[in-house]
Amino acid sequence: MFPAKKQPPQWLEQITFWLLLLTVVVVPLIFQINLVNAFILPKEYAIAGGVALILILWAARVLTRRTLGYHSTPLTAILIVLLLVVLIVTFFAPSLLVAFVGNHAYFSQNAIIFISGIGLYFFLVEYVTTRVRWTVLLDIFIATGGLTVVFFLLRVWGGSHLAALWPNIWNTLDEGNANFAVWVVVVFLLAAGQLFSKESRSWRVVLYGVTALLALVAAVLLSFQTAWWILLIGLFGLLVFSAVSFKNIRGWMFSLSVLLTTACLAFIFFGTPVSWRAVLPPEIYLNQHASLIIAERELGAGVKNFLIGTGMGTFPVSFSQFRPADFNSDSLLWSVRFTRPASSLLALATEGGALLVISFLALVVLTIIWVMKIWRAARQSEESRAVEFLRHPISSVSIFAVAWPWFVLTVATGLVYFTASLWWLWWLLLGVTAALLTVAADKEPVEKKFGEQTPERNLVISFIFIAAAIGILFLIIEGVRYYEAELSYHTALVSHSLPAAENNLEQAINYSGSVADYHAVLAQAFRLDALLSAQTSTPDLQHINTLVSNSIEQAKIATTMDPQLVTMWENLATMYETTANLLPNAYTWAIGSLKQALTLDPTDPSIMLRLGNDYVANKQYNEAEQQYKAAVGIKVDYVDAYVALAGVYEQLGQLDDAVATYVKMPAAGENNATILFDYGRVLYNRNKAGDRDLAEKIWLSLIAQDPNNANALYSLGLLYQSRGNTSLALQYFKKVQALNPDNKDLQEKIDFLLGRSVPIAPVTSTAH
């Protein structure tokens, strides 16, 4: 089965190394706009696909050599532990699909990223085995990083052609610019670190210098406060290193480090000049305080949650369940459901528990120890000119220049939430650092020969590799199908035709039916189609019933696939509410769905309001009152809930409570014409001492602001009629008639007032 050669062909080694270089170029630059998110799938497919192809070539090398060979490093054991923890966390997750591959609409931590990262580390150590290869790979990455910065600069500085091609794309890394700001900082540190070395050739000095300068310009244009702090940490390290190793570096780098550190401090404390900043789309992120509280509560929710978290990609569930109560006091963000915490480290804690955090931090600590050990040996070699520890001397400058950016990026995991590009960069820098240290130590690789060939041994090995090949082929096919599903899903979302949207959604489900969002959106499409069909001149009731039935069925499927997601239950409630005119128990079913949503998100007042509204529609006024009270109890400025509560009191005939509710109304309702009118209406109908005088005052103020407010004009007409002031009543009724000349009821009222008296009706209508 195996060739007689003991060494793999040279071309096989070269192809594998060039494939590594290709991934270094492709991952930072690839994106595709014909997807819901232009970055997630292309990046993850490039990362995982590159590692998978290298794995195949590595397996070919194993077969060629008849030897299982690999370079063992001090991190091998902890990486295996980390891999096992990731697999355990994944298999115990509520959704295996999300835990393995993440979410298609926004990036969520997933097993593929970690497995691919660990694989990338091992292959970098395995194939970057010379200083030349290491330098080539690093140079290509720095050049690629420079290209990503150039794209951003062109986009900012009048890139009309780029804006036309990619209107919502500002960088090639991520849908937001926060991650790109961190990327820019790391690219700068890598390029600047290489400038320290006196060994760099002139053309490399130009490459590093230009890239570092462009990265600095981009950092100023971005002006993210967190990125400035990360850059300050990086610059401080460069400053200290240049002071300690002054003899071994270019002298002017020390002065430059001092200058840049001073400028960075100025930007942090005094801010970047406004004229220097680029006008970028606003970005909203969950703050560190709320993220920390959610992580603490999740870890304290039980032994299982403490040890292995809730599973990869489940932060939206944790946010709904454990967000702080004071979150509802934020007037802008209270209704936002965040899908990720403030930082990746908190995401690891929430979704992976203590085991994942400990194994990750252990990897970081062991890496630092290993780097320090080799760096000290390099320093001693440079000082004594004697090689005692290192077989192939590597300068301390080279070690620092790549290890320090990795360390700074590691610190950033506690400050920023990493998407696929930054996680890939973290693993890339870890692997590049390990490859350099392995080259320095020049340890012989671990080799395990297959032994003497026998038919039985060849059969077992053949079976293993055939099974692996079938598994890889299956993953490739499923990956292609999932990608096709995403393309169809995006086409449906941007379609201007409901039938076309429905067809594309059904096609997406045929490709990959295990994505809850596909079914939820298809349910919405069927619902909208039913509503539009009902508005036609000759509605087809059978067709409408079919659409409604299909919408409920698809929404139910979505809740079955992702039962912990609040939005799925809200979506199902919407489908039931749509059928209220067709099914007698529709509101009962909607109430059941919203109760489930409230169980998952017990501090969301909007769910309480909606549940109360469905209770009202179901004529369960006491239950509705409880929900509205609960809503205003956790969000004291929730105007809509106050209005709904007052409405329930009216239905129950408790006008005193209704008036008291309007009195407690937050200031936000004082400028709302509809709310003020209703307040006056309730006062008019209650008719206690001073009520109608106050109602008159309210309605007059509304007319002063809007002379054409028909509701207020009509109500004043009724008020003055009740007081016997017929002429003034007629004056206001005629103003309403001028606004509504075809209103026959109003004309009859005017005729009655002109000819004889009529009973005074309560003000019950809000539109005339």
Explain what you see.
The protein has 768 residues and is an all-alpha fold. The protein contains 32 helices and two strands. It has a two-stranded antiparallel ribbon with strand order 1-2. The longest helix is centred in the middle third of the chain and has 41 residues, at 344-384.
Quickly list its features.
mainly alpha; elongated; two-stranded antiparallel sheet; 32 helices; 1% strand; 768 residues; disordered N terminus
Measured distance between first and last alpha carbons: 90 Å
**Looking across the biggest beta sheet, what order are the strands in?**
1-2
Low-confidence stretches: 1-6, 386-390
- Note the overall shape: elongated
Largest sheet: number of strands, sense, barrel closure: 2 strands, antiparallel
How many DSSP-defined strands? 2
* Multimer state: single chain
Beta-strand content = under 5%
Mean pLDDT rating: 87
How does the helix and strand content classify structurally?
A: mainly alpha
Count the DSSP helices: 32
> What is the alpha-carbon Rg in Å?
34 Å
Estimated helix fraction = over 70%
Task: Give me a quick take on this structure.
This protein has helices at residues 10-29, 40-65, 76-91, 96-101, 111-127, 131-156, 160-165, 178-196, 202-222, 225-244, 252-270, 288-299, 303-308, 315-322, 344-384, 396-412, 420-441, 455-493, 498-511, 516-534, 541-561, 566-578, 586-600, 605-617, 621-634, 639-651, 655-663, 673-686, 691-705, 710-722, 726-739, 744-755, and strands spanning 67-70, 446-449. With 768 residues, it is an all-alpha fold.
